[in-house]
From TrEMBL:
<dbReference type="InterPro" id="IPR007523">
    <property type="entry name" value="NDUFAF3/AAMDC"/>
</dbReference>
<protein>
    <recommendedName>
        <fullName>Mth938-like domain-containing protein</fullName>
    </recommendedName>
</protein>
<dbReference type="Pfam" id="PF04430">
    <property type="entry name" value="DUF498"/>
</dbReference>
<dbReference type="InterPro" id="IPR036748">
    <property type="entry name" value="MTH938-like_sf"/>
</dbReference>
Length: 129
């Protein structure tokens, strides 16, 4: 009996700089991922927010679960800067996470710099074409 194709949740168990972005995905650690990403202290995860244009605290459950290891969260909101909603800002503030929304390109560049400085940084990156 054949098991068929097994689809697993996308996860890279470590921290790595993002080497490239665009065409609907990202490259990091000599791998590529199609779709959005969460870059957390515990690793890099595939991420599918319910509505990329209207992020909610539920979209950040994994971030909030690792709040004790995160000081700064960079939120790459696609090609344009989109402010975070009041409920999301409040949830992150309560978890003592400073959130900084910006375009995905700016978030990738800033994440790489802060990661190289060994800072307690995380990033939520919405894929861009």
């Amino acid at each position: 009996m054949s098991a068929g194709v097994v689809i697993r949740e996308a996860h890279f168990p470590g921290r790595a700089p993002v080497e490239a972005y665009g065409n609907g995905g990202f490259r990091f650690a000599d791998m590529s991922h199609r779709g959005s990403l969460l870059c957390l202290p515990s690793g890099i995860y595939g991420w599918e927010p319910a509505d990329p244009l209207k992020l909610t605290p539920q979209d950040f459950a994994r971030v909030l679960a690792e709040a004790s290891e995160i000081e700064v969260l960079l939120v790459g909101s696609g090609t344009d800067l989109r402010p975070l909603g009041a409920d999301l800002r409040a949830a992150l503030k309560q978890a003592h996470i400073s959130a900084d929304p910006m375009s995905t390109g700016a978030a990738v560049r800033t994440y790489n710099v802060l990661l190289a400085e060994d800072r307690a940084v995380a990033a939520a990156l919405i894929a861009v074409d």
